[in-house]
Every structure is written in structure tokens, then in C-alpha cells.
Design brief:
The chain has 154 residues and is an alpha+beta fold. It has helices at 34-51, 77-95, 97-102, 124-133, and strands spanning 7-9, 12-14, 17-22, 54-60, 65-70, 115-119. The chain contains four helices and six strands; from the N terminus they run E-E-E-H-E-E-H-H-E-H. The strands form two sheets. It has a four-stranded antiparallel beta sheet, covered by helices on one side. The protein has a two-stranded antiparallel ribbon with strand order 1-2.
């Protein structure tokens, strides 16, 4: 699936695409070596595959992570972040126990915060026009009561 294709499930159709970003606790440069950054990237890609998350783009920097993802329609951003941050912290601490002893003594690899933004291929103006067109269509001048496709407004 590319970033412009809707997801179809039994009783729904739509997008659930997001730009996610988060950083290690205290903004430590925990992933400063290429080896650790690549290891974290592979861990995150494996978690995503296991949980049905499609990763369109991933960047692991020394002190933060960026992901552009498509989540299953039933999955919230909060749940996706629980999976990605929780499992990756567990795995990185297992492969690098010195992190817990030196950098992250209180036990958390990731900071509790994050940035997230939904991503779509339509503008807010397009959605407003689409919704306006569907408000009581049989009473609007020229309305025929039939569903109008979003593509007609783009």
C-alpha cells in the first residue's frame, strides 16, 4: 500500500496515517553510533510488522525517532506508541544492559512524551466543502440526495 491508498475493512474505509516522533529520556544521545541506530531501526520495523503497522518512512537520529506510518483502522496512536516504545525499550535494554546502568538508571529508555500528527492527502478546506455538500442534500439547491465522492472536491 502506498501513502495514498485507502484501507478497506468489513465495515469501514479510510486512512489512519500519522507522523510520529519521540526521544529517549533526558534527550540522551543513546543512538549516536550507526550500529545502535540501525539496531533500533530494525527493532522498530519488526514491531511494526508484527502489529500490522505499515512504515512508509523511518529515521533514527542520535536523540530522536521519526516515523511516517499507516496504522490499522482499529489502532489508536496511543496504542501504536505503546507497542513501538514499550517493546523497543525492552529489546534495546536486553541487548545493551549498560544503558540501564549508565544512562537510564530509572528504568525508562524513552521519554513519556511524543509528537503525532495525522497525515492525509486532502486539505481542511476540501473536507469542509465535502461536509457542506452533504448537509441535508435533499434540501440544498441542486442536491439530489446521492452520496458525492470526495475526489470530486479535490
Amino acid at each position: 500500500m502506498d501513502s495514498g491508498t485507502t484501507i478497506n475493512i468489513k465495515h469501514g474505509v479510510g486512512f489512519n496515517q500519522h507522523h510520529l516522533e519521540w526521544c529517549p529520556k533526558y534527550r540522551h544521545d543513546a543512538m549516536q553510533t550507526a550500529q545502535i541506530a540501525e539496531e533500533m531501526k530494525q527493532i522498530l520495523l519488526q514491531i511494526a510488522a508484527d502489529k500490522g503497522i505499515i512504515v512508509h518512512k523511518i529515521v533514527v537520529d542520535s536523540d530522536h525517532v521519526h516515523l511516517f506510518v499507516s496504522l490499522p483502522l482499529w489502532m489508536s496512536v496511543s496504542l501504536a506508541l505503546q507497542y513501538l516504545k514499550g517493546i523497543s525499550a525492552y529489546k534495546i535494554f536486553r541487548s545493551h544492559p549498560d544503558f540501564r546502568e549508565q544512562l537510564f538508571r530509572k528504568g525508562s529508555f524513552w521519554s513519556p512524551g511524543h509528537f503525532s500528527r495525522s497525515v492525509s492527502n486532502v486539505t481542511a478546506d476540501t473536507v469542509e466543502r465535502y461536509i457542506d455538500r452533504h448537509e441535508y442534500p435533499k434540501y440544498i439547491s441542486g442536491g439530489d440526495g446521492h452520496q458525492t465522492k470526495m475526489g470530486r472536491f479535490m
